Amino acid sequence: MSGIGNRPRPFRELGFTFARRSAEHGFTFARRSAEHGFTFARRSAEHGFTFARRSAEHGFTLIEALVVVAVSALVAGIGFPRIEQSLSAWRMQSSAVAVQAALEDARAQALRTGAPARFAVMRDTGDYARPGAPAGRLHPSVRFGEGSDQIFFFGDGSSSGGRILIEAGSGRRATISVSTDTGLIGLIR
Fold first, then answer.
1. What's the pLDDT score for residue 12?
2. Mean pLDDT of the chain
């Protein structure tokens, strides 16, 4: 095909700026439009010329947007309960570890000073206390269950013994056991 000036007049009047030859489709013409960018016209034997706009001009269809919203809702519906379960388990575990550390501090103080040290649990408030330290508090979603209200540690390493039960709102439980003879503290999940 020769230069642009050799094109048939009707195509120039339509605003076409170039044409190219395609083996399977015949001639393909592109028209430049200020508002739409390039649009293409394809010559076919049965339909004449067909014009197609760029799909980017139209954005997303309503169905595409609804599919995205539905998939997002499905992922959120599956993911959020798992995250909440993980957070609940983490809160219960961190509370149990904090109480266990406070018990070990009370035992260490009794061994260091040779005097008895008392660890106390206040079930109604979720507080726990050991001598020489500020009171600790469980996470609001975690509470003390049935068990010992107080445990004494003695200077020889022994203790009054007992169990402290910690429960989370999700039904999870942890038990902290204190041995009578040795005063050793163990966390049972």
1. 47
2. 78
Average the pLDDT over 43-71 and give the result. 70
Q: Token pair of 153, please?
A: 């540690």
For residues 42 and 110, membership in a common domain is answered with no
Owning domain of residue 45: 13-57
- Verify that 118 and 169 share a domain, yes or no: yes
Same domain, 40 and 108: no
149: its two tokens: 């209200």
At which residue do the structure tokens 């015949």 appear? 26
